[in-house]
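Quick one: structure for this chain?
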Amino acid sequence: MKTTLVRKEDAQHKAWRIIDAAGVVLGKLAVKVANALRGKDKPTFTPHVDNGDFVIVINADKVKVTGKKELDKQYMFYSMYLGNERRVSLGKMRERRPEFIIEHAVKGMLQKNRLANAMIRKLKVYAGSEHPHGAQRPILLVV
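Got it. Here's what it folds into:
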């Protein structure tokens, strides 16, 4: 049996998938989303080609975390000025920007190169249950 590698020109048409994050553990959700963005769930997966699908995540504000991560997990922001390091807990980030929590977790699971930058642009995260991508007829991805 011969191994087939997909070229960029021969990559399949990108489908749209939707995931409901309500009550799903953050790590398990991020793994599913990262695999769909990379195309690892397709039989034509090739590591150096962007063969993944678009992914819509709804109800990002209802994602679940285990243990004491709601208080203990912190996101650090640094402005490159001395003394301007800010730390924000996951609980406060959930109030301000719940989309950032999922985007940050998924970005950490992708490879660190230009291809990953193109893949992360295919991720659409929304805090509520409404999204403007109804015309694309997304397929439900079960987590």
